[in-house]
From TrEMBL:
Matches recorded under SMART domains: WW
Gene Ontology MF terms in the entry: phosphatase activity
Composition skew (Basic and acidic residues), residue ranges: 924-933
Pfam family, one: SAC9_GBDL_2nd
Region (Disordered), start-end ranges: 920-944, 1372-1404
Species of origin: Hibiscus trionum (Flower of an hour)
The protein's name: ARABIDOPSIS THALIANA SUPPRESSOR OF ACTIN 9, SUPPRESSOR OF ACTIN 9, MURUS 11
Phylogenetic lineage: Eukaryota, Viridiplantae, Streptophyta, Embryophyta, Tracheophyta
Length: 1555
């Protein structure tokens, strides 16, 4: 609920930690009238919000706090009060919430409303998470560094206005220019839950105001705003010059806003002036030497001006206002071009280190002009050696010269002028651009616009830049005041105040003004058409910009200096902020800004000593702490995360077993419980044994000693992980030893996904994580030989990629998880701790509201449905290509992943350290949700794809398989297999059909082990470089319409049989002669394009060129050493600024090392594998969407496409519920069993979707001849149900298909708990109410849909509602009912409805009536918790607990590890036992784990790195890695042969945990 613009309350944030340790964020925004409560999941750190009133939406903050603390009966552990949320990130073992605890009201009231706040004090709130996800030491250190980022006094925000663009912004606050948004990554968690406005848009820089006037009256207000670009973040020596994002280091946009304060309801005149400051936009850097006074400056010797053109294009696009000005003024001239004036303040004398930059700056502008790509932009360079001029002629004369240099460009660029009109009723009076949006009530009318920009720079854009820009801004400031009729002239300025002065100048009228004369009196007056007012005096009596022509002394004598000194104060503060952000110290040489102050001499004396101190501070920080600060900046911005946080999940999994999950059946217990065991699903402190209820079976037969839990999830999802919390007494054997897991959409469809997973014995509170894949076909496991973890004949693991990857089903509608525990010893009781299910759910609320990710999912699903061809060849819809052997297919597939070859690595880290993977997206379908379709052997498309694969194999190995494949040929064959979209099982099945062993074509077995390790390392490096290039490419596109595509593909992998095109190609690597005749399956000449190799400078065709990734690798060492950039002289320099790689360079295959070409092939295979996984995940998402809302919804527009569709549906629902709540809306509610549905029907799940979802003429109906249907609906939470509402289908009822409705309810699935609520016959209602007959007639939009209510006499507390619809078997009209009342036919003999879960048939019906319905709505109110505290402990329970806490008699002894060694890529631990040792029954070791990185390959597309998939399902969860341990021993009598004793599938837990 939004409040009117400019709400009366201030934003309040309260972070509450309740007694269980759970964390809630209570937010009351100034722009709304309600309060939201955001839950931080204590396991994964995911933010949870459902938007349910009374659950996480409340009327006030106090009401929300009372709810969380049970009215103070449950006190909070802690509370943190804050003023704003700045960001959040869940990083491994901690969640970090950044809040602003103290703000400064930097601009209390902008013209048009809105306050700008500077963050004075902030706090990182560290939230412990209980995830067992392992992290490396480097990651943990980096996470701690992120929490030390200092943002105080250097960041600001506005809740209601967009500050990322020049004032006044045309865009709303929630659509910022992301170039200037510094917490974009940290705000993503709030965006993902639909609360984007709850995290403010944070800008880095400076904002402050000063008011000025005379005689105690405030005549004007000046605001100085400086927003720092995030496109080239970094510290002084790590972010200089331009980077691959086409942005300069220390780039800042400054804005000087002046306005006249007015009374409420009056128009507010204002004007603005904008300029830029930043380092020189070309590739250069500096080598810092501790022994030298100055750093040695160098310019890249390879394409130093690459990217400079795009930099100026971005400026031109931002400041081009030629078409915005309307010619309404007397002297309004048409603007033909956009001026960009660069004021260069570098030292240019002989022997000066900066001289080289001056030369190259001039050359870079000449280069840009020569391209002709900025035809309407005029870039002018003004060189002015600031330090030399100050030293030679003093400060005053230097200032005068600067004014002369700036006069012409300043006048050409101008300023923006306008008025804020508090009412939009006067829009017709505005002459100029009109700006208005929902962020403010009135309208801005801009009479004129600044066109172009001035840009100041020195070497670092610091001290000189700040001073020079100030003296230019002073002139503009005086002119701004003059145009607002605020005179800064003192009594000595009379010679400049004549309208007609000595030089004959006549002041022009401002835009929108007109001069008129009275016909009778002849007096002149002036009309302001902008405001409709008339004055007698000239609005601008003085010559504009007159002070540009003054000497310094004239300026000082003729100007009221108090406002000028106040402006200088703002520049002093801003300069210190910019210097601190860039160098870690305040600005130097700032005393000159106080030159208009009467005590300027004192400032000068103080500045000399201060400069020495600051110089030493800068040198220390640049040399010692810059690298750490660089990492902090990058992590804060969310860039290079694959390097700094390689294993941290960008989108954490959701815990779907909380908070509304529950057990469908009570858990067997030795002691009576009130909740049936549901507290096993609630969060508890992990270090406490849950012994309030000790679960276990009574005396049971040995073969029945199990505990089975049926968990109903709070939302449908794809299940990824099972997390168990170990809980036992002193005897750890009471916890289960193994577990089975089954998953499914319904009870009828549970399928085994994990069998016999080991649960090692470990201490209380230990988290054990068991990865879950979807159902894997037994046939697939057999044909791939993956039934055993490590077959005896296999001597090497697949280091390159998983050649025999098994593909499990992906289903985003999984709702039930059955967990079966087996005891360590049969017949003994078991103790259980918390059970949690983790997974990924689709954005259903966004789907139904058509917003955010949900809208994107619908868009992609619609596109997918239109593009899908049912007759497509292959086992599934191919996400890559339909003609895999053609050259076009290669390009189509590879172009999706073509990445920017330029790379800007901003830190000095080692890229050959542990490397990483990132999930990618392919919007193609491989039927991941229906595995059977992909493994069916009788499918003709499958045979077609398999045959093509075999043809490829025969072309390489010969018709009789007489030739053995080498590594490259085997990899090429795998590429063709993946392009054909064949799974590993389908490939192996095809190979078996011709009697070929899959091991013969496994690339992992065809290269030497040492080479495999090197190749894997090089490919991992390529993955990092590719991700870096893509990240820079995406950031570089900000502010630009389009970035030119790369000349050549990132991998450029040729198809089988593709050869050199000849002709002009001088490389000729693969010619027809070099290929055997049998290897040419389909021949296609290469592209006619010819490229020039950047190494040998020979011409090469596309086939003979290496992929673009080769150029990245070619310039980086691959021997495991650190990457160190070298200057042309061979000295060590900073690698960040020297990395001026061209984006369109090409390397031929002859100039590439063999390992680089192999790495490109390996990386491409990994990309194709990941793309197949993505396609399967997306396909499963589209299938889930179709199963809920139906394909007809995607074919045509729904009712919510109307502007007021959603609002109308909400009103309908309110009227239907009569003050109650809807308890059975999908996704929180669902059906427990599937319902048979007719072929042309809407999905049965659509019965529970919101009223405005789907086409209004769609409805559910049962198959023909079905006489009875049973709906078992599980509500979102335990509720007091008061009635059921059945919405009639658009087709209406007839006497033949009028149903009999029977309703029962229960809390669990126990048959004994079911209670019959009534049986209703609605035939009489139909017969006496003609509006229920036949198709629905079109009526007014406010007409309620036809419906029937079944009201209960008393509310029924339940979780499961069973509704049975039955057709009447007798002839119509045989009984009568009163249509004015609900008719209850009693439930005698029907207390237990028929047990069939699906629709039942009772013989053929000739006339064909069927059961049908539009929606099912259940009305009532949710119950927060069960009444009562449960049963208290009795004597037996206490005695049993005490017995569990007694230490058992154990015979355990420790055997030391004799040696550790690597064997065949396995870690082998050897222990030696003496003959006198007792028999062994087990062993203990400290848990270890592998860090699973996100990034394992280069990007496969140019998708946003923060939003890689519509599902957010990472590769690691689609195909989870499982850690196995095999125990072998040499036993007496067996010689020296090893005997395998056992093999264990280990769960994941924190390293070092004894298990």
């Amino acid at each position: 609920m939004e409040s009117p613009v400019g709400g009366s309350r201030s934003t309040s944030v309260v972070v509450v930690v309740v007694d269980t340790g759970e964390v809630y964020i209570v937010v009351s925004l100034s722009t709304t009238i309600d309060t939201q409560v955001i839950y931080v999941d204590p396991l994964t750190g995911t933010l949870c919000y459902h938007g349910k009133f009374g659950f996480d939406v409340f009327r006030s903050e106090n009401e929300a706090l009372d709810y969380l603390t049970n009215g103070s009966s449950s006190p909070c552990k802690s509370k943190v009060h804050a003023r704003a949320i700045l960001g959040y990130a869940a990083l491994g073992c901690y969640g970090f919430l950044l809040v602003a605890t103290k703000l400064a009201d930097s601009i209390p009231d902008l013209p048009g409303g809105g306050s700008v706040f500077t963050v004075i004090e902030s706090q990182w709130i560290k939230i412990p998470l209980h995830t067992p996800q392992p992290q490396g030491r480097g990651e943990i250190k980096n996470v701690q560094e992120l929490a030390e980022v200092d943002i105080n006094t250097m960041h600001y925000f506005c809740e209601t206005r967009d500050l990322t663009r020049p004032f006044p912004s045309r865009m709303p606050v929630l659509s910022p220019d992301i170039e200037f948004v510094w917490n974009g990554w940290l705000s993503l968690p709030f965006k993902s839950i639909g609360l984007m406005q709850h995290c403010v848009i944070l800008l880095q820089g400076f904002v402050e105001i000063r008011s000025f006037g005379s005689s105690g009256q405030v005549e004007g207000i000046v605001a100085l705003t400086a927003r720092r670009s995030r496109l080239h973040p970094g510290t002084r020596y790590l972010a200089r010059g331009i980077n691959s994002c086409f942005s300069a280091g220390n780039e800042v946009e400054c804005e000087q806003l002046v306005w006249v304060p007015k009374k409420p309801g009056e128009s507010i005149p204002f004007n603005t002036y904008i300029w830029r400051r930043g380092s020189i936009p070309m590739w250069w850097g500096a080598e810092l030497k501790m022994t030298a006074a100055e750093a040695e400056i160098y310019v890249s010797d390879r394409h130093p001006y690459k990217g400079s053109l795009q930099y100026y294009q971005r400026l031109c696009k931002r400041y081009d206002t030629r078409n915005l000005d309307v010619g309404i003024g007397e002297n309004q001239n048409e603007k033909a071009f956009v001026p960009i004036v660069c004021v260069n303040l570098l030292r240019n004398g002989e022997g000066k280190s900066e001289r080289i930059l001056v030369h190259h700056f001039e050359e870079s502008l000449n280069h840009i002009k020569s391209t002709g790509k900025l035809p309407y932009t005029r870039i002018h360079l003004v060189n002015y050696d600031w330090h030399t001029r100050i030293k030679l002629q003093g400060e005053q004369q230097t200032i005068e010269e600067v004014w002369k240099l700036l006069k012409a460009p300043t006048l050409a660029i101008g300023i923006s002028e306008g008025d804020y009109l508090p009412s939009r009723m006067r829009l017709k009076d505005c002459r100029g651009e009109i700006i208005y949006n929902d962020d403010f009530e009135g309208t801005f009318c801009l009479r004129s616009h600044q066109n172009g920009v001035l840009r100041f720079n020195c070497a670092d854009s610091l001290d000189r830049t700040n001073a020079a820009s100030y003296f230019g801004s002073v002139q503009v400031f005086v002119e701004q005041c003059q145009r607002l009729q605020i005179s800064l002239d003192n009594d000595l300025a009379h010679e400049y105040q004549s309208v007609d002065n000595d030089d004959g100048y006549t002041a022009p009228l401002p835009p929108g003004w007109e001069k008129q004369s009275d016909a009778e009196t002849g007096k002149t007056y002036y009309i302001d058409h902008n405001t409709g007012t008339t004055i007698s005096n000239h609005p601008c009596p003085d010559k504009p910009w007159k002070r540009f022509d003054m000497t310094f002394d004239m300026f000082k004598r003729s100007t009221i200096l108090s406002p000028v000194c106040q402006l200088a104060d703002l520049f002093l503060l801003a300069g210190d902020i910019h210097a601190t952000l860039y160098t870690g110290s305040k600005a130097m040489h700032s005393h000159i800004l106080n030159i208009f102050n009467e005590e300027a001499g004192k400032f000068s004396q103080f500045s000399a000593a201060q400069n020495v101190k600051i110089t030493l501070q800068r040198r220390y920080k640049n040399a010692v702490v810059d690298s750490s600060r660089q990492r902090q900046l990058e992590m804060f911005l969310g860039i290079r995360l694959f390097k700094h946080l390689p294993s941290v999940q960008i989108q954490p999994l959701h815990v779907l077993s909380r908070s509304s999950g529950f057990f469908l059946k009570p858990v067997s217990s030795m002691f009576e419980t009130s909740d049936g065991g549901d507290s096993l699903l609630s969060f508890k402190r992990k270090d406490q044994i849950w012994n309030a209820c000790i679960y276990g079976l009574q005396v049971c037969p040995e073969d029945a000693a199990v505990v089975e839990l049926f968990i109903y999830l709070g939302e449908p999802c794809h299940v990824c992980q099972l997390l168990l919390t170990v809980s036992h007494g002193a005897d750890d054997s009471t916890y289960p030893s193994t577990v089975d897991v089954r998953t499914g959409r319904s009870l009828d469809g549970l399928r085994l996904v994990v069998e016999g997973a080991i649960i090692p014995r470990c201490g209380n509170g230990t988290n054990l994580l068991i990865p879950l894949s979807g159902l894997i076909s037994a046939d697939d496991m057999t044909v791939t030989g993956a039934g055993a973890h490590l077959p005896d004949q296999v001597t090497s693991l697949s280091l390159l990629y998983d050649f025999e990857e098994l593909e499990g089903d992906l289903d985003f509608l999984t709702r039930i998880v059955a967990v079966t525990f087996y005891p360590a010893a049969s017949g003994t009781p078991m103790t259980l701790g918390e059970v949690e299910i983790l997974g990924v759910s689709l954005p259903w609320n966004g789907v139904f509201a058509n917003k955010g990710r949900g809208a994107r999912l619908i868009e992609l699903a619609t596109k997918y449905q239109k593009e899908t061809n049912p007759s497509f060849s292959g086992s599934d819809t191919n996400p890559f290509t339909s003609t895999s052997l053609s050259n076009d297919a290669v390009a189509a597939s590879a172009k999706q992943g073509s990445a920017n070859k330029g790379v800007d690595l901003l830190t000095g880290g080692d890229l050959l350290s542990e490397t990483v993977s990132h999930p990618v997206t392919e919007n193609a379908d491989s039927k991941g949700g229906d595995h059977k379709s992909s493994t069916s052997q009788d499918s003709r498309p499958l045979e077609n794809g398999s045959q093509k694969y075999l043809n490829c194999l025969i072309s390489l190995a010969g018709p009789r398989m007489e030739r053995s494949l080498n590594f490259l040929e085997a990899m090429t064959l795998e590429i063709e297999r993946l392009r054909l979209n064949l799974s590993a099982a389908e490939r192996d099945r095809a190979l078996l059909s011709i009697g070929t062993d899959a091991a013969n074509v496994n690339p992992n077995f065809l290269i030497d082990g040492s080479y495999m390790g090197r190749l894997s390392k090089v490919a991992s490096t390529l993955a990092l470089l590719g991700q870096t290039a893509l990240e820079d490419k995406l950031n570089g596109a900000i502010g630009l319409e389009k970035i030119e595509d790369d000349v050549i593909d990132f991998w450029n992998i040729s198809s089988i049989g593709e050869s050199c095109s000849g002709g002009m190609c001088e490389v000729c690597v693969n010619t027809k002669e070099t290929l055997s005749a049998s290897s040419i399956v389909s021949y296609k000449e290469g592209s006619d394009s010819v490229f020039k190799c950047s190494e040998c400078h020979k011409k090469a065709c596309r086939v003979c060129c290496a992929g673009g990734g080769a150029f990245l690798l070619q310039n980086h060492p691959t021997d495991g050493t650190n990457y160190i950039g070298l200057s042309s002289q061979g000295t060590q320099v900073d690698r960040t600024t020297n990395r001026s790689m061209t984006l369109d360079s090409v390397v031929c295959k002859k100039c590439c090392h063999e390992i680089i070409l192999d790495a490109l092939v390996l990386d491409y295979v990994r990309v194709l594998i990941s793309s197949r996984r993505r396609a399967r995940a997306d396909s499963a998402a589209y299938k889930a969407l179709d199963d809920v809302i139906g394909s007809s919804f995607l074919d045509g527009p729904s009712d919510r496409s109307h502007h007021d569709g959603n609002h109308q549906a909400v009103n309908f629902l309110k009227q239907l519920l009569s003050g109650e709540e809807s308890l059975a809306e999908f996704p929180f509610a669902s059906f427990l069993h599937p319902v048979e549905t007719a072929m042309d029907s809407a999905p049965f799940l659509s019965l529970l979707t919101p009223l405005d979802c789907g086409l209004w003429n769609s409805y559910w109906k049962a198959p023909p001849n079905t006489t009875s249907v049973e709906f078992v609906i599980v509500l979102g939470t335990l509720s007091d149900v008061k009635g059921v509402i059945l919405l009639v289908s658009p087709c209406g009822y007839s006497e033949a298909d009028t149903p009999i409705v029977q309703i029962t309810a229960s809390k669990k699935l126990d048959r004994e708990e079911k209670s019959c609520l009534g049986k209703w016959d609605v035939q009489a209602l139909i017969s006496s109410s003609p509006e229920y007959y036949g198709p629905e007639k079109s009526g007014g939009d406010d007409m309620l849909p036809r419906h029937i209510k079944f009201t209960f006499a008393n509310p029924v507390r339940c979780r499961i509602v069973q509704i049975t619809l039955s057709l009447r078997l007798e002839q119509p009209g045989s009984s009568s009912v009163n249509s004015d009342k609900d008719i209850n036919l009693s439930c005698e003999g029907t207390s237990s409805p028929q047990e069939t879960r699906s629709a039942s048939s009772r013989g053929a019906m000739q006339c064909g009536p069927c059961l049908h319905a539009k929606r099912i709505v259940i009305a009532g109110s949710p119950v927060r918790e069960e009444m009562g505290n449960g049963s208290s402990e009795n004597a037996d329970q206490t005695s049993y607990i005490n017995r569990l806490n007694q230490a058992p008699q154990l015979s355990r002894f420790k055997v030391p590890v004799e040696s550790e060694r690597l064997m065949d890529h396995d870690l082998v631990l050897e222990q030696h036992l003496s003959p006198s040792s007792p028999f062994l029954a087990g062993f203990q070791l400290d848990a270890f784990n592998t860090i699973k990185p996100r990034i394992t390959h280069s990007p496969s597309s140019d998708a946003d790195i923060w939003d890689m998939s519509v599902t957010f399902l990472e590769d690691r969860h689609i195909s989870p890695a499982v850690l196995y341990i095999k125990v072998s021993a040499i036993q007496e009598g067996n010689g020296s042969s090893m005997v395998t004793i056992a093999e264990y599938r280990l769960p994941e837990t924190k390293p070092g945990t004894p298990i």
